[in-house]
Design goal:
The protein has eight helices and ten strands. By secondary structure, the protein is α+β, with helices and mostly antiparallel strands. The longest helix has 16 residues.
Length: 263
């Protein structure tokens, strides 16, 4: 392991991490650096490190994982949180199995059905119990702030939007607002890598920093895109059927993918 793969440890966590080996985890699009930690006779842990700033997500993730635990849904345990040296740190436990993009012990069909079932379970939670408000207008305000701060990566837009500016896309967001929101507790980034399963079944939700009350299409749109990208369009319909939405609204699907370009 090269020296640059070792995170500069925040002193409050040094003792907890003694004896662990660090391996950088490159899966996913998180702005945080993620490390898998393994040690002889010790449980596997994950350490996330991000630069402190207005758009940091680790404090949000910790709060949401704690809330999910109280709601009785499976997710990693928060072991430690620190802010130190211009960085935020989050230490969490690991879940058994692999993410649904790479859980090769399961067939692609089994994986999309697990994703649908996991979203159904989350979406059934009462919205009155969830303290995290991600309704469309609130998320658009954050999207606008990220755009104005230059934090929107225009090179990472979906292929159909590459070459457009963030300002152009934000104007589309404002002009194409769908009607009434169908509010549920959403994951917020419902892509296959953010759900863990083993051969025994679903293990839990990860990367939950964007969890909150929002239109259910926030999750359905990103889930369908992730399924098509990983497994092909043919498995999108079985996912929708298992979820109970056999005829998804293409306008709403596209709108919430457009909103996701800002995050």
């Amino acid at each position: 392991m090269s020296q640059q793969d070792q995170p500069p440890l925040a002193s409050p966590l040094d003792a907890r991490l003694a004896g662990y080996r660090f391996e950088r985890d490159t899966l996913g699009r998180s702005t945080a650096s993620v490390f898998r930690l393994e040690g002889e006779g010790q449980p596997v842990l994950y350490l996330k490190v991000e630069a402190a700033g207005p758009f940091g997500e680790l404090a949000d993730e910790a709060a949401r994982l704690d809330w999910l635990k109280t709601a009785g849904l499976p997710c990693p345990e928060v072991i430690g949180r620190e802010s130190h040296g211009g960085r935020n740190w989050l230490l969490i436990g690991a879940l058994p199995g692999n993410d649904l993009a790479s859980a090769s012990a399961l067939t692609p069909l089994a994986r999309v059905e697990l994703l649908a079932a996991a979203l159904l379970e989350l979406h059934r939670l009462p919205i009155t119990s969830c303290p995290f408000d991600h309704r469309r207008e609130k998320r658009m305000a954050v999207a606008k702030a990220r755009m104005q701060a230059g934090s929107v990566d225009e090179t990472d837009f979906d292929e159909t939007r590459l070459g457009k500016s963030a300002e152009t896309l934000f104007a589309e967001l404002e002009s194409r607002r769908p009607g009434r929101e169908d509010l549920v507790v959403t994951h917020g980034d419902a892509c296959l890598p953010n759900f863990i399963a083993s051969e025994d079944g679903f293990s839990g939700y990860i990367d939950c920093s964007r969890l909150g009350v929002a239109d259910r299409y926030q999750d359905i749109a990103l889930a369908c895109r992730s399924i098509a990208s990983n497994f092909g369009e043919a498995l999108v319909q079985p996912f929708l059927d298992r979820y109970g939405m056999p005829a998804a609204d293409p306008v709403r699907l596209d709108y919430y993918r457009l909103l996701d370009e800002f995050f």
